[in-house]
Design goal:
The mean pLDDT is 96. Helix 10 (233-246) crosses helix 13. By secondary structure, the chain is α/β, with parallel strands linked by helices. Strands 5-4-17-16-15-6-7 form a 7-stranded mixed beta sheet, with helices on one face. It is globular. The protein has 4 domains: 9-66 and 444-564, N-terminal domain of TfIIb (Single Sheet); 71-142 and 350-435, Rossmann fold (3-Layer(aba) Sandwich), CATH 3.40.50; 147-340, 3-Layer(aba) Sandwich (Dimethylsulfoxide Reductase, domain 2), CATH 3.40.228.10; 603-726, Barwin-like endoglucanases, CATH 2.40.40. A hairpin with an 8-residue loop joins strand 1 and strand 2 (23-28). It binds ligand MGD (2 copies), iron/sulfur cluster and molybdenum atom.
Length: 727
């Protein structure tokens, strides 16, 4: 970055590209172009850390294929044209009500993709859109991701937003399963410079144990790496629970119920019984249990490799059971709950699962959503309530959902589809209208979602760095969309936004008994006033005995350190018993499924996923500085399997759902009998020129939407049985 350049301003903003929430210093020239990016060394949380994706933000911003105007597709063709915002919203206001008229409210569906967890729009303006649609057909990337963790937390703690994170900076022992933060930079564990934090853990004498079917970059910096057979983490964890009871090692320090039931459930899983299924010797399992107890403090942390698996929810449940049984839940150095500065939804009643079920497969809702694994069923199965119109916001389910090819065919059958997205891609090309959000540098940023899962309490707000001009903010797009789906074309986006915000501000103040304080809220628009309100009413807030408000964040643009994690039990519990419930009925009920499969015949080869440092799910493959090299869509396979199956450079991989021809990348770092393909690729027909040149294949052609983790409905991406033949 050249600081001598005339007219170059160095501006501060949080990186929105992954969960690490790094502070960035972005150099913007007099033409508002991004000319450099570096880590903000004065950010108290990220302290200057930056990864290759964050460093490429300028390239992403200048991508000529990124959409800058609304796009409308001529009916029944693949021909797109640009349109004015008024025309685009008018079309939505005309067509959506027609679909509702013909097919009822359930005939409309909404899919929310991953970036909604990173935007102010996704956090604050989705509820009005959901209310306006009033359909039960809500879907999101959650059921391809972290839902098992939230369902387990909801049942154990009463609130699915109350999810423990390892106290990374203070723990003495970290058992990590199915996560590779050296490439992903962490998930449901917001920790900028995760690699540096792991290094620090070891430097202070702590121990890191990684459980993964691949010897990942994270495994290589660990004290110990254990290969595990995909999909078998629940067995490993049950055997640890079994050992803790059998050897009388439990030391519960928090109020719990269900201790006898969990002991009984674990009885069926002594270490010797699971050794073959997991591939981990019984003696090692016993040692892990003893080490977790012997360490001064310890935490178990499990992520995507164990969530998007057949027993995802049971696995996430057992992670917290072990944190409780070893005395590590809610204490420094153990597994703790963050204290987010902005007031979230305050639940009054305990979380419940399965309040209604889906039409076709009768799958339970979880957190108000149906599994993405059943969206294709709901679109293609005739009858009352068949989905005929879809809105996607920041998602690419053709590449991210199981049985992606089947879902793609289903999208082509819809009567009407709207996408809010930066790109014309594998999913949005089935839309009739695409509404593109503005540039990242034109967008305000506050991490409403991710700071609830941070390893250190912290807050940072960034105003837009560059003016919007005549484009609507994504917040406005969503507010206008909420009106349009009800047939009301809003004259102005800012009016729609202000109307939504005023309702919410009034209701929140009323509930807090502070209606008279409306005039005290600051902010240059109603969105900022909502943030100010949430900060003031939050746990560090000016109106609750602290001093935090919007002005404090504006005065501290590098972010504010709010201190290490602090114990939060029993205050955060929303369970009926006001204890940590170790044996919730829906989870106990699923143990039978786990037990039944313990001795099932193992498939010869199973498929798992992996993440790549310079990728971001499906949507950054059009940045030329990121693709190529190790960031290529290849199948990792053990050389012994290549030889045994007589494979060459390529293989045909077949599953119950589909088949792909893929290039092989033999490596000793994967278990024999396991192959790994990254997701988010498969851009063969993409209008994005760089992505098309590095197309790769869609891993989700192979994953099977008929297989789900039952309690949460989450897709199974890891442990998919496949066969390989020479290409
Ligand atoms: N660079 C980059 N960063 C990202 C993303 C990205 O695409 N690229 N995506 C972001 C998103 S959306 C998320 S959710 C997070 C996810 O963050 P992580 O959870 O860290 O995800 P991965 O890096 O895929 O690591 C998952 C690991 O699980 C292993 N695994 C597979 N199956 C099993 C199994 O059955 N048992 C066990 N124990 N391990 C298994 C895989 O080999 C892999 O190493 O990353 C985020 N960050
Ligand atoms: N086989 C397999 N499949 C997986 C996974 C796996 O490990 N293996 N991982 C799963 C996981 S963890 C996840 S989170 C999902 C992700 O699933 P999705 O969220 O469906 O997919 P993404 O590729 O993240 O797509 C994000 C979309 O948002 C757009 N976008 C980016 N920024 C913005 C913005 O600010 N506003 C708007 N409106 N749009 C924006 C991008 O252009 C892109 O189209 O994939 C899942 N699929
Ligand atoms: S680690 Fe994540 S938040 Fe940090 S710079 Fe990279 S993409 Fe951005
Ligand atoms: Mo994710």
């Amino acid at each position: 970055m050249d600081h001598g350049n005339d007219g170059v301003r160095n501006l501060l903003r949080t990186c929105p590209l992954c969960e690490a929430v790094c502070g960035l210093e972005i150099a913007v020239d007099s033409g508002d172009r991004v000319v450099g990016v570096r880590g903000d060394r004065e950010d108290p949380f990220s302290r200057g850390f930056l990864c290759p994706k964050g460093a490429s933000l300028g390239h992403l911003d200048q991508d000529p294929d990124r959409l800058t105007e609304p796009m409308i597709r001529d009916r029944g063709t693949d021909t797109w044209r640009t349109a004015s915002w008024a025309e685009a919203f008018d079309l939505v206001a005309e067509r959506m009500p027609e679909v509702v008229e013909r097919h009822g409210r359930q005939g409309t569906a909404l899919y929310l993709g991953n970036p909604n967890a990173h935007t102010v729009a996704g956090a604050l303006y989705m509820p009005p859109l959901i209310r306006a649609l009033s359909t039960r057909n809500l879907y999101s990337a959650s059921s391809a991701d972290q839902l098992p963790k939230q369902v387990a937390a909801g049942l154990m703690f009463g609130d699915p937003m109350v999810v423990p994170v390892p106290d990374l900076d203070r723990t003495d022992y970290l058992l990590m399963l199915g996560a590779n933060p050296l490439e992903s930079n962490g998930s449901l564990c917001t920790a900028p410079d995760y690699p540096g934090r792991l290094k620090a853990l070891r430097k202070r004498g702590g121990r890191l144990v990684v459980v993964d079917p691949r010897r990942t970059r994270t495994a290589k910096v660990a004290d110990e790496h254990l290969f595990i057979r995909p999909g078998s983490d629940a067995y490993l964890l049950f055997a640890i629970v079994h050992t803790l009871f059998a050897q009388e090692l439990t030391r519960v320090r928090v109020a719990v119920t269900g201790l006898d039931e969990i002991r009984a459930a674990a009885a069926a899983f002594p270490p010797a019984a699971v050794a073959e299924r997991t591939g981990i010797p019984a003696a090692t399992i016993v040692r892990l249990a003893r080490e977790l107890v012997a360490a001064p403090t310890a935490a178990v942390y499990a992520r995507i490799g164990t969530c998007t698996a057949e027993f995802g929810t049971v696995t996430q449940w057992l992670v917290e059971v072990i944190n409780v049984l070893t005395g590590n839940l809610d204490r420094p150095g153990g597994a703790m709950f963050a204290t987010a500065a902005a007031l979230g939804i305050v639940r009054s009643r305990p979380f419940r699962l399965g309040r209604w079920t889906s039409r076709v497969r009768e799958l339970s809702e979880a957190m108000g959503e149906f599994p993405i694994a059943t969206l294709a069923d709901e679109i293609t199965t005739p009858g009352e309530g068949q989905v005929r119109a879809l809105i996607t916001v920041a998602g690419n389910p053709v590449l991210s959902a199981p049985s992606g090819a089947r879902l793609e065919a289903a999208l082509a059958e819809l009567e009407f589809m709207v996408s809010v997205d930066r790109y014309l891609n594998e999913t949005t090309r089935h839309a009739d209208v695409i509404l593109p959000p503005p540039r990242i540098v034109q967008t305000p940023h506050y991490d409403f979602a991710l700071l609830q899962f941070a390893v250190h309490n912290y807050a940072r707000y960034s105003r837009p760095l560059v003016p919007l001009g005549d484009r609507p903010a994504e917040t406005e797009i969503l507010a206008r969309l909420a009106l349009a789906v009800s047939g009301q074309p809003a004259a102005s986006g800012t009016d729609a936004l202000a109307a939504v915000d005023e309702l919410i501000i009034t209701a929140t103040l009323h509930k807090a008994g502070m209606s008279e304080r409306r005039a005290e809220l600051r902010g240059e628009n109603s969105t900022e006033q909502r943030l100010d309100l949430m900060l003031r009413l939050g746990p560090f807030g000016e109106w609750t005995g602290g001093d935090l408000n919007l002005q404090a964040l504006l005065d501290n643009p590098h972010g504010i350190d709010l201190g290490p994690l602090r114990p939060r039990l029993p205050g955060v519990l929303r369970t009926a018993s006001r204890t940590v419930e170790l044996a919730p009925a829906p989870l106990l009920a699923d143990v039978e499924r786990v037990r039944a499969e313990l001795n099932a015949a193992a498939p010869e080869v199973v498929l798992i996923g992996r993440r790549q440092l310079r990728s971001n799910n499906s949507w950054m493959h059009n940045v030329s500085t990121l693709v190529g090299g190790s960031n290529t869509c290849t199948l990792h396979i053990h050389p012994d399997d290549v030889a045994r199956l007589g494979l060459g450079d390529h293989a045909v991989v077949k599953s119950a759902a589909g088949a792909l021809t893929v290039p092989l990348e033999p490596t000793e770092e994967i278990m024999p009998g396991v192959v790994s393909l990254p997701h988010g690729w498969g851009h063969t027909d993409s209008p994005q020129s760089v992505a098309r040149a590095h197309a790769g294949v869609n891993a989700n052609v192979l994953t099977d939407d008929s297989r789900i983790d039952v309690p949460s409905g989450t897709a199974v991406f890891n442990g998919v049985p496949v066969t390989l033949t020479p290409a």
